[in-house]
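Notes, Module 5: Reading structure tokens.

Key idea: the token line is not a picture. It is a compressed description, and you learn to read it the same way you learned to read a sequence, by spotting repeated patterns. We will look at two proteins. The first is printed below with its tokens.
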Amino acid sequence: MARLTAPAPADIDAKTQGALDAIAKQFGFAPSMFTMLAANPTVLEIMMGLQGSIAKLLDAKTRHTIALAVSQSNGCRYCQALHGFISSNLGGMSAGEIELARTGPSSDPKRAAVAKFAQQLIETRGQVSDEDLAVIREVGYIDPEIQAIVAIVVVTLLTSYLNNVSDTVADVPGADHQSAWLSSPSAA
């Protein structure tokens, strides 16, 4: 059971309900993270604005790779499930690509480097080394793209923190099939 509660449907104002309806249309369901955030419409609005903004950064598979790596590193079971769903169903990533993104490596050198860099950002609290920057630049990322990576990491950390505090119930379709990595020691 979640530790932070979602508002009752009757307690959700029309604007917030419209936002939840838009999310449900996009995903095919309203993820419990967003219904929980509806308790504070301003926080929901901030999250939706941030999510909309980062959708303009880099390509979708790179954004998904970053989100999967961050969710894994931060031990957010809900985010692991939701980003796995989004990467597979909306992002066109295979199960193998998703698993590689979670653990850091990839068959694509740029995505492997971005996953590792995202994890290093978390581990070092943003104080990456000159060598870390050199590695990400060697695979072709330029400074504006590195800024985009940092922004995506931070937004994903925010969702991870909100879901970890809430202990949001994984209502993501197919999450029960992902139970092996959700319960594995390396998932935390």
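Here is the second protein, with the sequence above and the tokens below, as before.
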Amino acid sequence: MGKKMRVDKLLSNVGVASRAELKKYCKQGLISVNGKVINNPGIQVDSENDEVMFNGEKIVYREFIYIMLNKPDGYISATFDKYDPIVLDLIDQSYLVFEPFPVGRLDKDTEGLLVLTNDGQLAHRVLSPKKHVPKTYYAKIQGKVTEEDILAFEKGVILDDGYETMPSQLKILKSDDISEIELTIHEGKFHQVKRMFESVGKKVVYLKRLSMGKLKLDESLKLGEYRELTEEEVKLIEER
């Protein structure tokens, strides 16, 4: 059994048209339910089992959407910002009608995996400090990253505000004047990766999120591109 709701609410929720416009379209005979043209936009329908057609096209109702975005540099992880472009500027209007929001934040200059959804409960579970959902980043670091840093991060480092981080896993891909690393953290403090490296006297010069839970960034997505998640992928977001 799906959700019982007015047919005009169902159609406006999926972005077909506004409720006022749908009243007009209803009079024009453009809406049918289970093969019958309706003239009352207020009739109740079952969102899963009734067949709703608009202008000859079958409408599939969805309550939640889940999007994977490969976030580019220069965008704010927010639903509104006075000064800077936001990640929602990259998303098509047909998805924006669902009012998605980013699950957690990536800094303006950080690239990579960002999940957008309108599923508040999933977002709450993923971001809950009790859950410790792991997040893995690739970074370029000014300065040589060493075994000592691996040990320090494994133990937990003290950030500039006195907070001690949980143990994290640092993997050195290249140790040089500009080092390349992968880092998995299990919490989400503000600017955490940058501040962790500052605590060992180094500077992050490039940062990209690769995964969240067991969900990995689809590397075929170019910067600024996105796609919907599969049902299996949605489950992976929360897995440790």
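Summary for the second protein:
- The longest strand covers residues 203-212.
- The chain has a mean pLDDT of 94.
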